[in-house]
Amino acid sequence: MKAIGILGGTFNPIHFGHLRMAQELADALHLDGVRFIPAANPPHKDAPAITAQHRTAMVRLGITGNPAFTIDERELQRNGASYTLDTLHSLRSELGNQVSITLFMGSDAFTKFDTWHRWQEIIDLCHIALVQRPQLRGHDQKLSKTLETFLHNHYTENPDDLHSQPSGYVTMRQVTALDISSTAIRHALQHGDSVRYLMPDDVINYIAQHQLYR
C-alpha cells in the first residue's frame, strides 16, 4: 500500500526543525512522500500576522530540491477554520482508501489532542506518528486518562503496520532534537539577529526581500 505523511502547521516561518523531522519520519516509516499543508486559519492559534500566501511561498522554497516533499494548498482554498478533520476528509476523497496517510504530530500537541475538532474521528482517516519534542523546563506532558486509553488502543511500534491499512494506528518516533522554533526565529528577526543555519538560505532571502517579521 502506498504511504504518505502529512505535516500541517502555520510554518511561520518554516525551518530546519520542520524539514529534518519530516525527512527522518519519512525514512523511519518507509513513506513514499510527505505533504506539507500550510494552515490558513489555525483554530488553536491566533491568526498569524504573516499572510498565508507568504507562509506558503516560504514552504515552497524550503522544500525545493527534495523530491519526496510536496506542498498541498487545500487549506488555503477553504473558508473558515483549518480543521485537520476537514483536511483528512478532503484527502480521502482524493486518494480513496488505497493509500495510507500518517499525520505527523508533536508529542506536546498530542497532550491537547482531545480538544481538537471531532478528534475521535481523526484516527479513522489516518495514522498518527508522534514526535518527541525537546523537553521544556518545567513543562508537564502528562496525558489525560482519555488520551492514555486512546494511545493504548491504537499504539504500535511496527512501522509495517502503517502500510497494512490506510488508518487506525498511532506510533511514536524519536528524531534528531533540533531545538528550533518559529517563535524564536521571529524574535531574532525582530531584533536584527542572524537566523543563518536555522532555516534554508532561500527562505532567509525571501524574508529579507519582503521585509517580513520586522
Question: Which tags fit this structure?
Answer:
globular; about 35% helix; alpha/beta; single chain; about 210 residues; about 15% strand; 8 helices; 6-stranded parallel sheet; Rossmann fold
Draw up the topology in text.
Layout: E1 2-9, H1 16-28, E2 33-38, H2 52-63, E3 69-71, H3 84-95, E4 99-106, H4 107-110, E5 127-131, H5 145-154, H6 161-164, E6 170-173, H7 182-190, H8 201-209
Parallel strand pairs: 1-2, 1-4, 2-3, 4-5, 5-6
Helix pairs in contact: 2-8
Protein model, in words:
- The protein is of the alpha/beta class and 214 residues long.
- It has a single domain (2-177), classed as 3-Layer(aba) Sandwich (Rossmann fold).
- 34% of the residues lie in helices and 16% in strands.
- It is built from 8 helices and 6 strands, in the order E-H-E-H-E-H-E-H-E-H-H-E-H-H.
- The chain has helices at 16-28, 52-63, 84-95, 107-110, 145-154, 161-164, 182-190, 201-209, and strands spanning 2-9, 33-38, 69-71, 99-106, 127-131, 170-173.
- Strands 3-2-1-4-5-6 form a 6-stranded parallel β-sheet.
- Helix 2 (52-63) packs antiparallel against helix 8.
- The longest helix is centred in the first third of the chain and has 13 residues, at 16-28.
- The protein is globular.
- The model has no long low-confidence stretch (mean pLDDT 93).
Could you provide a short overview of the structure?
The protein is α/β, with parallel strands linked by helices and 214 residues long. It has helices at residues 16-28, 52-63, 84-95, 107-110, 145-154, 161-164, 182-190, 201-209; strands at 2-9, 33-38, 69-71, 99-106, 127-131, 170-173. It has one domain (2-177): 3-Layer(aba) Sandwich (Rossmann fold), CATH 3.40.50.620.
